Amino acid sequence: MIPKLHYISQGNSPKEHIENIQKACSAGAELVVLHLNNVSEKKHLKMATEAREITSYFQTRLIINDNFKIAKQVKADGVHVNKTGACPIDARKHLFTWQIIGGSAHTLQDCESLIEKQVDYISLSPFKAIEDTATKSLGVNGFMAIVDALKTETPILGSGGITTNDVTAILETGVSGIRVATQITQDFDVMRTFNNLLSASSTDEKRHTFE
Predict the structure, then answer these.
(1) Could you tell me if residue 183 is inside a domain?
(2) CATH code, domain with 192
(3) Which entry of 52, 140, 183, 192 is 20 to 30 Å from 24 by CA?
(4) CA triple 103-205-58, angle to 5 deg
(5) 3-state SS of 14-52?
(6) Alpha-carbon distance 8 to 6, whole Å?
């Protein structure tokens, strides 16, 4: 079962990423993603080890972004591979059987490719336009069109600039949950609001499951 809310770490330094993961865990996060860029393998391993210690204490799941080797070394709960990262099939060969793999998608074709590669969840983005990129926002209509076309059992999580104001509409598209970075980093107390909004959909989800 993939948690409905994933917190993606942010920070101005690797240390700040770890501090924010601790805050997220304290605020009740079920799953956090260590999302470090442009750090050495040695530094990445050190930070991942610290993140694993924190998440183990809080019994929070830990996903390592785009480095399946480190995910295996620290016995994280899984790895998230980006579009330019490792192939999920290759990553699977190196991981423990219980570790999960998520992948990033921007289009219906991306999703179909990830499903073929048997990922455990798909991160569909961007919900809202990302600054300085040519990637267009999918919005509610884009999410709904892709989910309807896929008709898959693989959980699809919305991502990209999502705030508490968007949750209800996003869930109506049929996605399983969301991945959030900025709004939670700005105020970790908002984690409770996200969780309340997401759990409010549980009744609907059960109805769909048994149809």
Answers:
(1) yes
(2) 3.20.20.70
(3) 140
(4) 60
(5) HHHHHHHHHHHHHCCCCEEEECCCCCCHHHHHHHHHHHH
(6) 6
